[in-house]
Amino acid sequence: MPLIRVATTVPRQEYTQEAKLQWLDKALSANPSDLFLSAQEYFGGGSIREICRLKNIATDDFPVTEEWLKEHVGGLARKHNTHIGIGATVNRMGVNTEDFLYFDNTGKLLGHHSKMALPMQDLVMTNGASKVTPEIDAARAATPILLPALELRVGTVFCWQVFFVDLWNDLMRNGCTLVVHPMKFAPRAWYQKGQNAAGEETRTGFTQGEGSDDPESDPLGWIRKLKYESEFKQLPIAVTCNTWAGGEKFLALVGWVDEVTHRTNLLNVPSIASNEAVVVTQFNPELFDNLKQWHRGLYGKFKDDFVAVSKKTMMRKAMRIEARTRAGQTEEKLNAHVAKHSVEPIFDFDF
Known about the structure:
This protein is α/β, with parallel strands linked by helices. It has 2 domains: 4-289, Carbon-nitrogen hydrolase (Nitrilase/N-carbamoyl-D-aminoacid amidohydrolase), CATH 3.60.110.10; 297-340, no CATH class.
């Protein structure tokens, strides 16, 4: 199977749907890839809408429908013969959800994941200005979406859901071969909170702890968590982020996390409006498909990565034992062993 080219992005900050579509079109043309990924809330996000309100910036970037996305994003997928993963706030019958949607290279919508962990400024139950309804089905959120032409099973870990515990385990056990990690904004930053004139919870700006504008810093452990999950769940992670024109000291994060073959490559992009970045990474999903049953016979196929991957042989053996035990296979083998080797006691007493 050929290598897959995955494009991760920090999109240029635009404020209208037309300008965002134009940027997407140009970026797809300039960066050939098999899977092109936007940041979270690229279309229709309440966050940037509130920023526009505070800064008196005109915008028409309101929640979109699946039909709108199929026409415009699906159309770009067909035009560029590229799979696209797009972040959007989607309105379905009056209900807004924060989604990441996957289109194949023919423009067909293959599926979407919705965000569970919504800040109060977004959450409909806390009178958030964005009026977004959370995902409530954890099993659905942890079910990978199949991209058949690329032979990929893709999971989505939105923004601060990086700190979830079971979602990562479930994605691994459900056969995920690529995790997409779309973020709203620089992961070292914090929102400044307030209310709008309607009394709705909203963002009024951004702040951060001293020193967290240092690209070597990781005050929340966000990057450490990404690397940890990649190493111990044996998954590559594609990272995307917005700038929201927040300011130079806020560092948007973009790139690739792969602690399996040691190809992690993350860039820090100052969050000014004119900045943008596209990082194209090549990887071999077949390698990750073979990790569960890694053996010496695979050397010829994966010789460039064989030594690095083989260092985790003990870990993968332990994981296989756990999986067999959880599935009841160990119990079945034990019962078969007992049945085969046990001898019925013979009682022959004279009374």
